[in-house]
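note to self — DONT lose this again. spent like an hour looking for the file last time. sequence + predicted structure for the chain T wanted, 122 res
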Amino acid sequence: QVQLVESGGGLVQAGGSLRLSCAASGRTFSNAHMGWFRQAPGKEREFVIRISRTGSTISYVDSVKGRFTISSDNAKNTVYLQMNSLSPEDTAVYYCAASQLPFGRREEVTSWGQGTQVTVSS
């Protein structure tokens, strides 16, 4: 099991940037696929982006293509989500996620962070 703690959320104006961090603990971090989901008010939690164990494969939802990037630092047991060109539609609680297998659906995730709020004002 991997324990996850997010940080870096906040309020930003449209067009701005934020970087989220997800600090992981547990022996299995280096073997885990890591990523991010988000949940807007009144909506289902949705997949955003994921990075493979080796960092060689990144998957993301079309709405963040060209704007969001994910990276990992195994030495620090941390995954980062760089969000650029933010729009009000990106407003949500962002959750770090981990699993031993690749995931794209909520049911496939085995470890969750507590979530961090991202609010984008127009």
